[in-house]
Amino acid sequence: MTERMFRLLERQQKLDALFQRAKASALTDPLELAWLRKRKRDLRARLAALLPSQQWRSPAASH
Question: Which distant-in-sequence residues (6+ apart) come within 8 Å of 23 by Cβ?
């Protein structure tokens, strides 16, 4: 695993934790949740470009 992939995975974990906290809060702005979802999707796409394996593809992309 390259350092770049490792950094992206770390960033993905941090972003996921932020998303889960925001989702659990009743005071979170829906636009913030949408922004976090988009960031997660973009990060997943970057990882998929580095690791073109089945585990990083969304279920819809495999059909």
Answer: 33
pLDDT more than 70, % of the chain: 81
Nearest to 49 by CA among 36, 31, 61: 61
What's the 3-state SS for the chain? Answer: CCHHHHHHHHHHHHHHHHHHHHHHCCCCCHHHHHHHHHHHHHHHHHHHHHCCCHHHCCHHHHC
**Mean of the pLDDT values across residues 16-25?**
93
Hunting for tokens 């580095």 — which residue is that?
Answer: 50
